[in-house]
Each structure stands twice: as structure tokens, then as C-alpha cells.
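_Per-residue structure_
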Amino acid sequence: MFMTESEVEEMVVKLDANGDGLIDFDEFCILCKAIDDDGGGGGEEFKRLGEEAEILKEAFDVFDRDKDGLITVEELGSVLCSLGLKEGDKIEDCKAMIRKVDIDGDGMVNFDEFKTMMKNGGRLVSAF
């Protein structure tokens, strides 16, 4: 994405529901849902889908720390801890979150499973 600093600041202000100056994961999910709900057609729809895929890939990459295309229990825990969420401290909590979206049963989340979770209104702790 190519945006000026002022455009990024404007986007943060619009999306920052809790006023902490940051876009947290729940606020990001709201953005993804808004993108998904936005109508359009033809070239605009294609462009929107490309932008949505790029945003989802960037979000996935935050969790996929070793860039192997999979989110492991350890990677999920590490990200949750870095966000200050207590669920990251408990391996069983992380395993349970992954099981909720792990369609192929390999104990990890691949990009397709991540996209499915996000398109179904997934939230970091409750659905992931």
C-alpha cells in the first residue's frame, strides 16, 4: 500500500474506536468486515478484493513470525503476549484458539484457514 503519513494518521483516527492511538486486532477486524461489506462492481470489486487479500496477508504475517506459511501455537502465544493478552501465557489457551480454526487438523493455521476465520467475523481471542 502506498499512503502518505497524513493518510495513515487519518486512517488510524477513523479506525481507533478505543482512542488509544493504535489499531488493535478487533478494530482491524472491523476494517476487514467493512471492506467485505462494501459493494462495488467490475474493476472496483476486483481492486477491492486485491486490497482485502493484501491486508489479510499482512495480518497473517504478523502471526507467522518465521514466515513458513503457518501460525503455530508458539507463534500465536508470542504475538498475544506481545499485545499484552494473558491468553498468550497459557499454551492450552493457544492450542484451543488454533483448534477453532484449524480445518485440516494439523495443529497450525495456514493462510486459507486464517482467511476463513477473518471472513467469518473472527476475533483474536474469541474466535482465533
Observations:
- The radius of gyration is 15 Å.
